[in-house]
Amino acid sequence: MPPSAPGTVNVLVPCGALGIGVKEADVFDRLAEAHAIACDAGSTDSGPAYLATGQAKYSRDSVKHDLSILMRAQAKAGIPLLIGSCGTSGCDEALDWTRDIALEIAREHGLRPRIALLYSEQSPQTMQAWAKAGRISPLAPMTDSDPQRFAACDRIVALMGPEPYIAALREGADIVLGGRTTDTAVLAAVPLMRGAPPGPAWHAGKIAECGSLCTVRPREGGVMIRVGSDHFTVEPLGAHNQCTVETVYSHMLYENSDPFLLHEPGGILDVTAAQYVPIDERIVRVTGSKFLPQPYTMKLEGARGTGYQTLMLVGIQDRDVLADIDRFIAHMHDVLTTRVRETMGPRAGEFDISLRAYGSNAVSGLPPTEGAPPPREVGLLFVATAETQQAATQIAKTCNPWFFHLPLRPGMELPSYAFPFSPAEVERGRVCEFMLNHVVHVDHPLELVRTRFADVAEVAHA
């Protein structure tokens, strides 16, 4: 299929996540073909801390670099720019952080876009009330919607579908910065708004959600999706990159346990009958995608802070220790726990000590294969978790002499394991945890979304 094929809605997806790197040449070289620019900016991949704290995973400089390219491209082409799940978590604070960067870019480059902001953070108290009213359902492995679970969250976000983006564009937005959104929805929004059938629109969005991850060179930029009346195509932006049938269809399994069904707000994408055909060495065409309407729900994500941690690290090359590493770690854990209880007593409060042997089984948590040779060395990580940062650090200091010098057996010469830092204790700060895996049942797609416009005057005077 030629790039200029009539009747398609073309969305330029510059990267898998705002802040990981946008190639300016790729974007501007393909800009004339696009009806919109859209990409994701968030994830739960890196754990609950970004939602609980409202802080972004990527640096301000990296996000500004990418957003500057996209805003200048939007201004040049006069097409919509959509960014979903701003600031990693998509909470209100993260969205405002991204808004401020956008206003700064606009001021520096003399741009005057109309920017829509879509807020989807929810009050824990409001969601507690919704749970009491039976409007929230658990997803596995959760088994209930206990209202107290929602009240205990520091922050809750509801994942938006495409409808708030479409509404904002119809109200005249040039740029839409969204709170927490499904990765797929932000890419499907403009094709759906322009009349594309939902099956191809949603499926194209799913395949392109991570930019070039659906190509043979997953670290090289983005892709262009073209959604037609009964199909879509996907093509890398980079001239030397390729999409293949395998790289395209396999992306249905990315963050999705079912290779054929994907649950989205308002329905289920069904690709059971999808056919993938290479158009040439770079482009793949897909037909047969269906979208099955369902009652509208929005997934809820919630997180909270639960304690504080302090770390210590040693490197161990002692052959005797490495030959019996599991027993050594179990023994050390008993020694350290006993020392804290005997030395600090009630002042330690509720605490936990974790020892993780990187180089042995710290990643998998599984015992080494029987008969496997001992590791050449391990990095032994000490993690103290307590109710306050001060308590966690005092626990680490209490354990310090034993952690660095514990022999494998009584009577052995006192060893010294290698420590990389001085002081040895590294305060990690607050520990966070996810609290929710639920969906909320809404009467319409915009019920839990608040839309605000940062108008031209705000940009000029920011």
Overall shape: it is globular
Distance between the termini: 45 Å
The mean pLDDT is: 95
What's the count of strands?
21
Portion in beta strands: 25-35%
Strand sequence of the main sheet, in spatial order? Answer: 13-14-10-9-1-2-3-8-4-21
Structural class: alpha+beta
**Largest sheet at a glance?**
10 strands, mixed
The assembly state of the depicted protein chains is single chain
Tally of individual domains? 2
Share of helix among residues?
Answer: 25-40%
What Rg is obtained from the alpha carbons, in whole angstroms? 26 Å
Low-confidence stretches: none
Helix count, DSSP H or I runs of 4 or more residues: 14
Structure description:
With 462 residues, the chain is α+β, with helices and mostly antiparallel strands. It has 2 domains: 9-120 and 159-296 and 442-461, no CATH class; 305-434, Ribosomal protein S10 (Alpha-Beta Plaits, 2-Layer Sandwich), CATH 3.30.70. 31% of the residues lie in helices and 27% in strands. It has 14 helices and 21 strands. The chain has helices at 24-29, 49-53, 60-77, 92-109, 124-132, 147-151, 163-170, 183-193, 198-208, 245-249, 319-323, 325-344, 389-405, 456-461; strands spanning 9-13, 36-42, 81-88, 115-119, 121-122, 136-138, 155-158, 175-178, 223-227, 231-236, 261-264, 267-270, 275-278, 284-287, 290-293, 297-316, 351-358, 378-386, 426-434, 438-441, 450-454. It has a 10-stranded mixed sheet with strand order 13-14-10-9-1-2-3-8-4-21, with helices on both faces. Strands 5, 6, 7, 16, 17, 18, 19 and 20 form an 8-stranded antiparallel sheet that branches. Helix 3 (60-77) crosses helix 4 (92-109), helix 8 packs antiparallel against helix 9 and helix 12 crosses helix 13 (389-405). The protein starts with 8 loop residues before the first strand and ends with a helix. The model has no long low-confidence stretch (mean pLDDT 95). It holds the Pfam family AtuA. Residues 45-403 form the Acyclic terpene utilisation N-terminal domain. It comes from Ramlibacter ginsenosidimutans. This is Acyclic terpene utilization AtuA family protein.
